[in-house]
Automatic annotation (TrEMBL):
Signal peptide: none annotated. Its main location: nucleus. Residues 5-79 form the Nitric oxide synthase-interacting protein zinc-finger domain. PANTHER family: ENOS INTERACTING PROTEIN (PTHR13063), NITRIC OXIDE SYNTHASE-INTERACTING PROTEIN (PTHR13063:SF10). It is found in: Nucleus. It comes from Pristionchus fissidentatus. GO terms for cellular component: nucleus. This is Nitric oxide synthase-interacting protein zinc-finger domain-containing protein. GO terms for molecular function: ubiquitin protein ligase activity.
Length: 329
């Protein structure tokens, strides 16, 4: 008998979960799912753009911390992109308006030409008829035009096809794009940009607001608030343990170390980052800032977005990559 791993564990009679995941990843089809670890998230005291420790930090109303210089550069760059996209969209609107105007003028010209041709028929007394524009492939056509001037097959009158252009029904050249020198007139089929059927993609009106790259909420310069961190000293103790070198900041009230696992809050009145246990005490008692003794409201408290811990209770650890779905017929 063959051992369990005799064929590298590929002799099972069913399509296993791991085989299905492996094939889905290498096939290029279907949505990929990945669970992110703690090393996929930045520390809470780093800029959300540069991912580096902050020197002059600011915070958004959603609790995301940025370096002031980085977020200002981001806002300026986005405003330039929006202005450029807006100009392109305005040029497109002007081109569409010009095209509509030309089509309207052409339509009016056709109506005027049709009206002049109608008024020039013998059905109206005193009008002169110019029958030279009508060819008479068969007898009775001119008489039909005189008797019923409205019965015309085109706006410019009857147009007949010269006999040299007429082909037999069995001639294959009738359906060919390459006959009569048309092969040099048509652009390449294999280049979509040169194909007459390929229309340029229509631009949408760009959003005029700069959005936060993390929360996708409007990012306004006047809403950014400065942040004051309380730096930890090397010889200071937290509880029974000395502060380690990797801990940079502490709570100014409780002197607890602020790490990725610590739930923190920002107080607008004192512009400080404190542990959330201080906020819980404030909500239970009088709403007074413990740092500068100023009265507070609940809107003056912003929960700071924490860094990576690898736990779903703290961060959204699931990531998705949307790819085309293969439909089975």
């Amino acid at each position: 008998s063959m051992t369990r791993h005799g064929k590298n564990a590929t002799a099972s009679s069913f399509y296993s979960y791991h085989e299905r995941k492996r094939d889905a990843k290498t096939s290029g089809w279907g949505t990929l799912h990945e669970r992110l670890g703690a090393d996929s998230f930045k520390p809470f005291d780093c800029c959300s753009l540069t991912l580096q420790p902050v020197k002059d930090p600011v915070i958004t109303p959603q609790g995301h911390i940025f370096e002031r210089e980085s977020v200002l550069e981001y806002i300026l760059a986005k405003k330039k992109e929006i202005a450029k996209a807006t100009k392109a969209w305005e040029r497109q609107c002007e081109a569409e308006a010009q095209k509509e105007k030309e089509e309207s003028n052409a339509h009016n010209d056709r109506l005027l030409k049709k009206f002049n041709a109608l008024e020039g028929t013998p059905a109206h007394p005193g009008a002169k008829v110019d029958l030279s524009q009508f060819e008479t492939p068969r007898a009775g056509t001119a008489a039909a035009l005189l008797s019923n001037p409205l019965k015309r097959k085109s706006e410019g009158g009857l147009h007949t096809v010269p006999m040299e252009k007429v082909r037999a029904k069995g001639d294959e050249g009738v359906l060919s794009n390459m006959s009569d020198g048309r092969s040099k007139q048509l652009p390449s089929f294999w280049i979509p940009e040169l194909n007459p059927t390929a229309a340029a993609s229509k631009l949408e009106k760009p959003n005029q607001k700069v959005l936060c790259p993390i929360s996708s909420k409007p990012l306004k310069l006047k809403e950014l608030m400065p942040v004051k961190f309380t730096e930890a000293k090397a010889d200071e103790e937290v509880g029974h343990h000395a502060i380690k070198s990797k801990i940079r900041f502490i709570c100014p009230v409780t002197h607890d170390a602020l790490t990725n696992t610590t739930k923190c809050a920002y107080l607008k009145t004192s512009q400080s980052i404190v542990a959330y246990s201080v906020v819980e005490q404030l909500l239970k008692k009088e709403m007074i800032d413990p740092i500068n003794n100023k009265p507070m409201k609940e809107s003056d408290i912003i929960e700071v977005v924490r860094g990576g811990t690898g736990y779903a209770s703290t961060n959204d650890v699931k990531a998705k990559l949307y790819r085309p779905q293969l439909e089975l017929q």
